Amino acid sequence: MKVAVVGSTGMVGQVMLKVLEERNFPVTELIPVASEKSVGKKVKYKQKEFTIVSMKDAIAAKPDIAIFSAGGSTSLEFAPLFAEAGVTVIDNSSAWRMDPDKKLVVPEINADVLTKEDKIIANPNCSTIQLVMVLGPLNKKYDLKRVVVSTYQSVTGTGKAAVDQLNGEISGNETEKVYPYQIFKNALPHCDVFADDDYTKEEIKLMKEPKKILGDDTFNLTATAVRVPVQGGHSESVNIEFENEFELDEVRKILSETPGVVVMDDVKNNHYPMPLYSEGKDEVFVGRIRRDLSQPKTLNLWIVADNLRKGAATNAVQIAEYLVANNLV
């Protein structure tokens, strides 16, 4: 199994290499790919060093799978070239997510939509992934009517420069500002750029992607995305109105039986999900499960996941695992 990791020097690319190794994905040949300035440099995988190659050389090598984490413009340009060479691309950027001809996949929720003909597969937005891991099983049982989500997103979602800004501000050192304001001791209601309707691109992704993944556009969803001074792990406060009535014990049971979801919901013992707890883990953690007292058939809960792992790298590798297990590549 020849596997190319495109964007292998970046924050998510590095985690992808780590996840491939940890999950013992059947890599017989690793092809690390990065920008021209990184060609010839080395990356580590399974305690060996591999030389970074160019896009052109990677395409010529005809890997079985190419996992992309190199930004939207790079994906738009190069993913079709890999696909034309017969390579199955799993893309972590936003480039293909809402393309009607491309599948948007969270394996535990909708991997069954994949076929051998899918040569470019989109990995959802990090905040979307952890949200649909909870919405998916609850929608099947109670039928979603309206979802209101507020996010508390880690600086790692922006990249290494944002982590450097936070750490620089903590230590009192001047660093390049990625955000329009300081992030230390602050919260910015500003993830990604603002669109014409005054929502940010991150909020728009959260409002559109779950409907495509769940194959259901009958419910309404609105979002506010906030960047907080946390180094790893995204959190979400979610209010869910259903068409049908629910019981809290049944909700907890459904979620605890959902693969990849861990229920942490014991407030008497201060047991609830936190980004600090999720860091380095692949599961999606859910807690603070309680009835909304202001209106019927409505639930409040709190979802946390490591945005670099399940929110990006792990989900992409799980897609690759599904393809291999089902002879789709």
Automatic annotation (TrEMBL):
Positions with a binding annotation for phosphate: 97
Top-level EC class as recorded in UniProt: oxidoreductase
Membership in a protein family: Belongs to the aspartate-semialdehyde dehydrogenase family.
Active site residues per record: 126 (acyl-thioester intermediate), 234 (proton acceptor)
Pathway involvement of the protein, from the record: Amino-acid biosynthesis; L-methionine biosynthesis via de novo pathway; L-homoserine from L-aspartate: step 2/3; Amino-acid biosynthesis; L-threonine biosynthesis; L-threonine from L-aspartate: step 2/5; Amino-acid biosynthesis; L-lysine biosynthesis via DAP pathway; (S)-tetrahydrodipicolinate from L-aspartate: step 2/4
Single GO MF annotation: NAD binding
Gene Ontology BP terms: 'de novo' L-methionine biosynthetic process; diaminopimelate biosynthetic process; isoleucine biosynthetic process; lysine biosynthetic process via diaminopimelate; threonine biosynthetic process
Protein's UniProt name: Aspartate-semialdehyde dehydrogenase
Source organism, top-level taxon: Bacteria
Binding site for NADP(+): 9-12, 37-38, 307
InterPro entries given in the database record: Asp_semialdehyde_DH, Asp_semialdehyde_DH_beta, NAD(P)-bd_dom_sf, Semialdehyde_DH_NAD-bd, Semialdhyde_DH_dimer_dom
This enzyme's EC code(s): 1.2.1.11
Keywords per UniProt: Amino-acid biosynthesis, Diaminopimelate biosynthesis, Lysine biosynthesis, Methionine biosynthesis, NADP, Oxidoreductase, Threonine biosynthesis
HAMAP family given in the database record: ASADH
Residues annotated for substrate binding in this entry: 153, 227
Domain Semialdehyde dehydrogenase NAD-binding: 2-117
Lineage start: Bacteria, Pseudomonadati, Bacteroidota, Flavobacteriia, Flavobacteriales
Subunit structure: Homodimer.
